[in-house]
Amino acid sequence: MPPDQLRVLITNDDGYLAPGIRALAPAIAALGYDVVVVAPLVDESGVGSARARMVGRPIRTESDEENGVTFTGIDGTPALAVTLANVGAFGRPPDLVLSGINRGHNIGVPIFHSGTVAAALTAAEQGTSAVAISIDSETPSYWETSATVAAEALAWIAAEPAGTVVTINVPDRPLDQLAGVRHASLHPIKRSRVIGTKAPTGEPMIEIEPVQPNPVAGSDEALLAAGFVTVTPIVGIREIKDDAAATALAKRLA
């Protein structure tokens, strides 16, 4: 299907004013896609698939226009933005969802907590294919490289079965300096440790302690560090076809 017949929802978790989404949306619109941008009003990083405060309340929005694209911010999470778009709150529901460009990579097991990745998984839950794209820098210089990769990924996923999701990480370097594109497994070792502590006033607190595991060959962390664009197909919650747990519990209750 040609781009001008496809509606693409672009969202993120850094907020609708973030430079990543401001670079991505005009690049995708320039290719002829029907682009609708809906993202959080403020930074909602790390919220996962939360859609709290969704039911039974009006949701505040703000909009502005830049480079011919209307950017709409909502008082809610990326997953909520996807849900609202899919039920027609911003016109015709999207055919595809593009989440990003996230500032900083999304690698390894902790992508479970990423609002960027969760937006893509929420789309899949609702029957829409999606791409989550992140750049490997907190202060990026080459947004256009990630935007180009996102556009090519979008064209590919449009022909895949509904509900297909990939998460992609892009080195922060010029397009002609990329080492290539590789399928990557999720790095299996967490790069930080959660520590429980208390505030001086006695309330419980959580602190994060960095961990420096050795990169696992073939993982997103190792390949990204080597300059490759990493591509990882992912799925959301899926049952295990095994009745052992139910059988064991039934025996214990007998």
UniProtKB/TrEMBL annotation:
<dbReference type="Pfam" id="PF01975">
    <property type="entry name" value="SurE"/>
</dbReference>
<dbReference type="InterPro" id="IPR002828">
    <property type="entry name" value="SurE-like_Pase/nucleotidase"/>
</dbReference>
<dbReference type="GO" id="GO:0046872">
    <property type="term" value="F:metal ion binding"/>
</dbReference>
<comment type="similarity">
    <text>Belongs to the SurE nucleotidase family.</text>
</comment>
<keyword id="KW-0479">Metal-binding</keyword>
<dbReference type="GO" id="GO:0008253">
    <property type="term" value="F:5'-nucleotidase activity"/>
</dbReference>
<feature type="domain" description="Survival protein SurE-like phosphatase/nucleotidase">
    <location>
        <begin position="8"/>
        <end position="186"/>
    </location>
</feature>
<dbReference type="InterPro" id="IPR030048">
    <property type="entry name" value="SurE"/>
</dbReference>
<dbReference type="InterPro" id="IPR036523">
    <property type="entry name" value="SurE-like_sf"/>
</dbReference>
<keyword id="KW-0378">Hydrolase</keyword>
<protein>
    <recommendedName>
        <fullName>5'-nucleotidase</fullName>
        <ecNumber>3.1.3.5</ecNumber>
    </recommendedName>
</protein>
